């Protein structure tokens, strides 16, 4: 048996100068096996990663196809000469009502909404559930997402865009001014960019606001009146929207209809609005703040019921002419319209509170406060003759009737005890 040293000698390299000491000499054995194990481990890891990746890929591909199918089926038209409409802000108050009305008459509707938390997103989700039950799919996304818009226009040849997504609310603009720029200016431009590039270009109908009349004192308000004295940043962004849409009409041939809504109210409404928050406070026994104008004059609004507004939106869509551009280029002059959609009979805020008290059978605890300089205007009053002449717009619901319907909905949705948060 050879001695230990002779065995070691057997492994001595023949070439002098390449000699390594004992410990190094044994290393190749250990490192070969370790390397082998490492290689095995790496191979296994790579295989696991690749199969996981393909699982994720096929999963996301499945969801993509699934998503595409939802969009396409929601956009399907079920009446002759029907529309395919992209409704932005579809989980919002006006958006949900308009989407439902279009779907019910056989138009294809795809909704888009970012479900932000300006007010309780649970209410928006309940509206979404209602729309889902009627076959309207709402894509969760922001109008500022150009890629998403391009994808939607890629999937569906929308004949119309009903653009209702916006940062609403007059007084909140002092708290969060940038949200108005983000949604009402940047979001509008992103949407118009997508619309002008689409083939075919859709006709665009969008929500402006009665607040553009600002400090206008001429009554009733007509579309030809001056609108260059907005009283709030909100109003200024809506006014800017009217100018911005005009440029897209002028340069790219987009058919544009702007709708100046007058204090829209009704079932499934917005919790930030006075009639809604007053209802909640009255039922909870909490005080409400009622603003007064100069010399203690009551403030007044041309409150307009949601069903009348829906008729105005649909009338606008039905009479919207086609856009004239293609390939992002104007091919001829295109339609540009702005309509007042009001009720033509202003009611003071204390009278509105009186109607609520009667409906709720509870007396309100009113704090009368001088109107703070927060963007409010003393009164609004719509002249609607233009909308009447163009598509027979004829609001038929007075505030008493409309608030009765609202209160009925409110109680069925929240109950007397407000089980859901508002
Ligand atoms: O028509 C419009 O252009 C606008 O209508 C409403 O704005 P506003 O008329 O101010 O509606 P509310 O916030 O419901 O206020 C209604 C009236 O109640 C008054 N008010 C509001 C809140 C409050 O605590 N107390 C109070 O007396 C306001 O001063 C106003 O006169 C919407 O909130 C805007 O999004 C919309 O663009």
Automatic annotation (TrEMBL):
Signal keyword on record: no
Keyword presence, RNA-binding: no
Alphabetically ordered keywords of this record: Isomerase, Membrane, NAD, Transmembrane, Transmembrane helix
Superkingdom of the organism of origin: Eukaryota
A single cellular component GO annotation: Golgi cisterna membrane
Documented EC number(s): 5.1.3.6
First-level EC class: isomerase
Subcellular compartments: Golgi apparatus, Golgi stack membrane
First-listed, main subcellular location of the protein, grouped into a coarse class: Golgi
Domain NAD-dependent epimerase/dehydratase positions: 85-319
Catalysed reaction equations from the record: UDP-alpha-D-glucuronate = UDP-alpha-D-galacturonate
Transmembrane parts of this sequence: 35-52
A GO MF label: UDP-glucuronate 4-epimerase activity
Topology relative to the membrane: Multi-pass membrane protein
PANTHER family, per database record: EPIMERASE-RELATED
Family to which the UniProt record says this protein belongs: Belongs to the NAD(P)-dependent epimerase/dehydratase family.
The protein's assembly and partners: Homodimer.
The protein, known as: UDP-glucuronate 4-epimerase
Organism, as annotated: Salvia splendens
């Amino acid at each position: 048996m050879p001695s230990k040293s002779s065995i070691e000698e057997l492994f001595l390299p023949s070439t002098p100068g390449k000699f390594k000491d004992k410990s190094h000499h044994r290393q190749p054995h250990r490192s070969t096996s370790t390397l082998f194990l490492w290689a095995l481990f790496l191979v296994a890891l790579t295989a696991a990663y690749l199969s996981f990746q393909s699982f994720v890929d096929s999963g996301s591909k499945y969801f993509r196809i699934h998503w595409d199918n939802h969009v396409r089926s929601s956009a399907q038209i079920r009446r002759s000469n029907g529309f395919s409409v992209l409704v932005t802000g579809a989980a919002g108050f006006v958006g949900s009502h308009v989407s439902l009305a279009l779907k019910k008459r056989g138009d294809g509707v795809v909704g888009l909404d970012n479900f932000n938390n300006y007010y309780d997103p649970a209410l928006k989700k309940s509206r979404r559930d209602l729309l889902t039950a009627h076959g309207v799919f709402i894509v969760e996304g922001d109008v500022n997402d150009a890629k998403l818009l391009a994808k939607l226009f890629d999937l569906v040849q929308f004949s119309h865009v009903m653009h209702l997504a916006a940062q609403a609310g007059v007084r909140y603009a002092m708290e969060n001014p940038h949200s108005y720029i983000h949604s009402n200016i940047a979001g509008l431009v992103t949407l118009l960019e997508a619309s002008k590039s689409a083939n075919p270009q859709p006709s665009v109908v969008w929500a402006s606001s009665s607040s553009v009349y600002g400090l206008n004192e001429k009554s009733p308000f007509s579309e030809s009146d001056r609108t260059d004295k907005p009283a709030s940043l909100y109003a200024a962004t809506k006014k800017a929207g009217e100018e911005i849409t005009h440029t897209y009409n002028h340069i790219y041939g987009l058919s544009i209809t702007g709708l100046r809504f007058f204090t829209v109210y009704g079932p499934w409404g917005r919790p930030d609005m006075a009639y809604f928050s007053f209802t909640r406070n009255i039922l909870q026994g909490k005080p409400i703040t009622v603003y007064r104008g100069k010399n203690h004059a009551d403030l007044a609004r041309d409150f307009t019921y949601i069903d009348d507004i829906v008729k105005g939106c649909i009338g606008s869509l039905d009479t919207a002419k086609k856009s004239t551009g293609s390939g992002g280029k104007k091919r001829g002059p295109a339609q540009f319209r702005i309509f007042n959609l009001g009720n033509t009979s202003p009611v003071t805020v204390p009278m509105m509170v009186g109607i609520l008290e009667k409906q709720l059978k509870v007396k309100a605890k009113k704090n009368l406060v001088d109107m703070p300089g927060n963007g409010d205007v003393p009164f609004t009053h719509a002249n609607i003759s233009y909308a009447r002449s163009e598509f027979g717009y004829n609001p038929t619901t007075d505030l008493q009737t409309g608030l009765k319907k609202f209160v009925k909905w409110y109680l069925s949705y929240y109950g007397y005890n407000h089980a859901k948060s508002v």
